[in-house]
Amino acid sequence: MLGSHKQPLHYIPGRAIHHASLTYAGEAKTDARDAVVIADQARIRHDVNLMREPDEVTVELRLLSARREDLVHDRTRAVNRLRALMAHYFPSLQAAFNYATTRGPLVLLTKYQTPAAIRRIGERRLATWLKGQECRKSAVIAAAAVQAAHEQTAVVVGEAAAARLVSRFARDLLRIRDELAELEAEIDTALKGNSSAVPLMTVPGFGMRLAADFLAATGTDLMAFETPDRLASFAGLAPVPRDSGKISGNRHRPRRYDRRLLNACFQAAFIASRTCPA
């Protein structure tokens, strides 16, 4: 609200206020005392960070990136539970496919979850049904599923209940997959309308997702950092010296930095080290 009315906003970490309050007389802890300490620190300190009002693209990228991260965590959790259930009653089919990235096996599990059901429909009819559901490589998926079904003839206790849960998890994963595709399309649209995203995505290792995470953490105006050193410090890439007396050159990892930005930089460097020929 203050930013929308062009009022300058400064940020003082809570830890700094806590340590500063120890230098004031008395041990009381009240809202009035905290307000006095905060106001006094804002008045006498000249190194307090000025908060910038984010633009529309930055806010949009932050919201979309946060939602995408939540969905990725939900997908990982659902895949793990799906695999755990299938390992209980149908381990051969559990090991036959990658349920995290492939759509066809998930479509299969929405209707056929048990060895008996897959053997009953047969490979040819299963391939035809999968093709009607617009699944890629339907014949390959059907052949692998029927082969896995023929490898297991025993019926495990609790198979029916586990199969119903597997069907639900498969539908949840398909929904998450569709929502992730929509979010990535929105992120791509937001990046195309920003001038900082184009040169950033030419850096080896940076793609659409990492560029969105980078700009969501830094904002779209990188000139606000003034120097590359400040950007490196904000990302936690600049070592912090801890010298005392005769001890010098003692450098440590910083404690205060943006974790999401550091993660984006690390992943980009890791990808570039594996794919960039230079």
Automatic annotation (TrEMBL):
Provide the alphabetized UniProt keywords: Coiled coil
Q: GO: which molecular function terms? A: DNA binding; transposase activity
Per its UniProt record, what InterPro entries does this chain match?
A: Transp_IS110-like_N, Transpos_IS110, Transposase_20
Q: Which residues form the Transposase IS110-like N-terminal domain?
A: 2-91
Q: Which residues cross the membrane?
A: none
Domain Transposase IS116/IS110/IS902 C-terminal, chain residue ranges per copy: 200-275
Q: Which GO terms describe its biological process?
A: DNA transposition
Q: Which residues form a coiled coil?
A: 166-193
Pfam families, per database record = DEDD_Tnp_IS110 (PF01548), Transposase_20 (PF02371)
Q: What is this protein called?
A: IS110 family transposase
